[in-house]
Amino acid sequence: MSVGKIEADWLRDERLQSILGVLAADGEEARVVGGAVRTHLFGEPIGDVDIATTCPPEETVRRAEAAGMKTVPSGIEHGTVIIVAGHQGFETTTLREDVETDGRRAKVRFGRDWEADARRRDFTVNALYCEADGTIVDHVGGLADIEARAIRFIGEPEERIREDYLRILRFFRFFAWYGTGRPDTHGLLACTRLKDGLSGLSAERIWTEMRRLLEAPDPSRAILWMRQAGVLTRVLPESEKWGIDAMRPLIDAERAFKWQPQALLRLAAIIPHMPDRAAAVAERWKLSNAERDRLIDWAEAPDVKPDLSEAAFAKLLYRSKPHAVQDRVRLALASARAKANDNPEWLEAVANYARLTRFAESWKKPKFPLAGADMIDAGFSQGPRMGQALRDLEERWIESGFRLDRDTLLDEAKSLSG
Question: Residue 399: is its pLDDT beyond 80?
């Protein structure tokens, strides 16, 4: 069924139009599918543009290369080829039907039936096609769901989930980005009943979905419904007895202070401030080294009192990991703002945490003026005694508010060397 048209610069892109034309020649068909169509209709900037075609994958490669384009067979056994035109990649997949699934992957059969291809997809809003001239093709009621901002499984929710249990997390992820009100009842019940299937998914797939969910403008309602369904506890047991109440205040603070939303800080908001718990999450979800370090650094960072002076705060930043302290202060500020809504006595803490946040954002770590070579010049020999003296001098420099200059420190080093 064709309903409406898309008028957009991205659709008129010469590279995209060229690919669609090449794949639609000689009785074949090609359309834009999925994310680009969905995101455009929701009024958001689009990302990657994916294409569906009736051409078998080998024919897709032949036609693209005959037209002077490069191809990358990224998943050719499942019908997927990346066509590179003008240094931009377009993921192109042959229409297909699932023949066999095990909850993680599927065996597919290629076909030419657009409605069958649509019905094998996860959600109605992801099964919309757009022809080269902008005509929208909707076989599953996705347009109505976009208008209602409803995330619904195509067909029977439990059947769709059993094909790939990751769809449970995708249900909440798309709800976080596009949904309104409460989630679709049938989808929510299916996710609740089948949540045990999440245990068979790889850590990388779970973290990828959770990160995307946490990057949504406001994931707090999705997180709440995940908790209600028992899904959050299944993938993030650390949150079970800790609570998720800090998520909403953090979102409000992000908007008030124009902070860039950060998935890791939002994750930190809903797990205990304990290094062993943070390390457990990092290990289970196979976070990257940088992600793991940031989460554990946050958990190890000290609490910051709101009445701390800037001079004392600078010393704390120097002795600690500044990014971790900044994460702690931002979460403390968000929490104080929420408490101030009910108790004006917290307003002073809000003002102080806001002051410390601004200070941390602009703070530059000063460089200690001395090094090992300076200590040797001052009369020390390499060894534990020199290292301890260097640390003592650095501590004196910190306590001076970083004011002691190099000459003064050198004089003290010479005195200490005897």
Answer: yes
